[in-house]
Design brief:
InterPro entries: DinB/YfiT-like (IPR034660), DUF1569 (IPR011463)
Pfam families: DUF1569
Distance between the termini: 19 Å
Radius of gyration: 14 Å
Largest sheet: none
Organism: Tunturiibacter empetritectus
Protein name: DUF1569 domain-containing protein
Structural class: mainly alpha
Number of domains: 1
Mean pLDDT: 95
Number of helices: 5
Helix content: 40-55%
Strand content: under 5%
Length: about 150
């Protein structure tokens, strides 16, 4: 499974991010491209431990059943998947500033490797290994890049 500990996956994601434009049309959802990039940056902050939301009750119940399907090789995230509380972005954002911020977070995550991953549980899935965090962050980025045709 692709993950952000692989240089090729990081390069791929950054190349696809470079394709995003202010006027890129969303194929689903309510966010524009700049908001989606900020949303992805907030997701990277989860994996780095900069954000530490509490476990959701629904995640405690359904997380163990959903996790194997969500982490399946070749299975992209579904359109309109639920969002971790606190990762929603409704305010207008600057695409170039957000792209730069997200690239910095991706670089920080990749450079730190497994030791740089949080040990704080994901709010829905619970405890994740560094490899799972890395794969999930790739899937999340891929999801939003596909949202904008990148």
């Amino acid at each position: 499974m692709k993950n952000l500990f692989e240089v090729s996956a990081v390069d791929e994601v950054k190349g696809r991010m470079a394709q995003l434009r202010v006027d890129s049309a969303a194929q689903w959802g309510r966010m524009n491209a700049a908001q989606a990039v900020e949303h992805c940056a907030r997701g990277m902050e989860l994996a780095l431990g900069d954000r530490r939301p509490p476990r959701m009750l629904i995640g405690r119940i359904l997380g163990p059943m959903v996790k194997p399907k969500a982490f399946r090789e070749g299975e992209p995230m579904r359109k309109n998947s639920p969002t971790v509380p606190g990762l929603e972005v409704e305010e207008e954002r600057d695409l170039e500033a957000e792209r730069k911020r997200l690239c910095g977070l991706i670089d920080r995550f990749a450079a730190a490797g497994p030791a740089g991953c949080t040990t704080h549980p994901h709010s829905f899935f619970g405890r994740l290994t560094p490899q799972e965090w890395s794969a999930w962050m790739y899937k999340h980025l891929d999801h939003h890049l596909r949202q904008f045709g990148a």
